[in-house]
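To whoever is on call:

I kicked off a structure prediction for a single chain this morning and the downstream step that reads the tokens threw a length-mismatch warning. I double-checked the sequence; it's 166 residues and nothing unusual in it as far as I can see. Pasting both halves so you can look.
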Amino acid sequence: MLKKYLIYPLIGTLLSTSAAMAELKIGYIDYARVLAESRQAEHAEKEMESEFSPRKNRLNASRDDIQRMQDKLNRDAAVMSETERNKLQNDIVKKARELKRTENELLEDFNIRRNEIAVGLNKQIGQAINEMAKEGGYDLVLTGGVGYVSDAVDVTAKVQEILKKY
């Protein structure tokens, strides 16, 4: 008798949960693909390149200068006076330190700028996901941490289309 009172409500709950799950609309988005293939990411990459390439070029020129100085020291050290050799060695060390400091500054600036751009891109992608989910009547949209996704629930292309409007 006690089993009857426990089992019937449990079966009823399971059946109603199964019916609710059948109506649940789920989608999956390959976030990395959306990010990599978006027009915004391509634009951001070009923007970063134009913003940082002059500084990279100056760094490369400094590296070349240091290498030329090092080559001269290696080649002519035997015929240089001690004063000239010491001055050249000190100049090489000084320029190498300056190069290292400038490289670190560039890397920090690059990372800061990349993070700023990523925040903006993530915001746009999030808006596109929300728009797609609302328009499509999705109850749940997953973007990662999924072991398997069938093509039936992969809505990445829909989000990419919406993102093209931004």
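Update from on-call: the warning came from a stale cache, not from the record. Cleared it. Sanity check on the structure: The beta strands are 26-28, 140-142.
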